Amino acid sequence: MNDGSPVAGVVARMQQRLDELPDDLAHRRIFLSTYLRTTRAVGDAIDLASFEDPAWVEDWDVKFAELYLDAHDAALTPGARVSRPWRLAFDAPADIPALRHVLLGINAHVNYDLPQALLAVISDADFTDPYLTERRRRDHERIDGVLAQRVSAEDDELGGARSLLDQVLTPLNRLSSRRFLRESRQKVWHNTVELQHARKQGPDAYATRLAELELLSAAKIADLLRPGQVLLRLAVTGFGVTLPPPV
Q: Is 129 in contact with 58 (CB distance < 8 Å)?
């Protein structure tokens, strides 16, 4: 990753947050560390020209990361508003398995933040250009390849003491991880288009649809907090959320 790139800059900001987390919030380091490594991997993929429009992907990736940093900082600021998905993820019991902390963060960030990040770098005019929109969608899906390559490595990073059942289920868990990454990306694109339609109607319509997405994402996190084999349950119920047609 180019040390002078915008992605390197946002990685440095993540590292600063990681270094400054107080000991009583050590469990928040689990998702942040995972996200930091993933962002580095995206930066490396950009340098390797893995995308059709690397400059656009870089801008998008930075804006996406900034939404997480904003939520992280707000959660540490008394009186600041934190969205429901992030509030549930940040307030999860510290002693739940590391994998669950990661899934909670992924849920809040992908289901709730990612459509907003895409809209920040795709204008209404861009959406009228089918060729450009298709390029954006393809680059959006290429992120799956980067993330899928990280699944096994991140599973090993989480490591720790594993029960016999966890060891038996690990290959299946990794397959499930790849599947819900792909599935959630498809749903994110759908939700991005729904939010873009609302944005064209005006600020009130957009705020209403974004509030719907916030509630759906929070409900999914609440489900992830239930006991049980989370990845197996996700393989059945799905990971992403889908905005219904507007009323």
A: no
pLDDT tens-digit readout, 155-181: 555 555 444 434 434 444 544 555 556
Cβ atoms of 126 and 136 closer than 8 Å: yes
| Cα–Cα nearest to 38, from 20, 59, 64, 75 | 64
CA distances from 174 to 118, 202, 223 (A): 27, 41, 20
- Radius of gyration (C-alpha) of the chain in whole angstroms: 18
Burial of 186 (0-12, 13-18, 19+ CB in 10 A): middle
Question: Of 6, 7, 1, 45, whose CA–CA distance to 144 is shortest?
Answer: 45
Q: What is the pTM of this model?
A: 0.85
Cβ contacts of 156 within 8 Å, gap of 6 or more: none
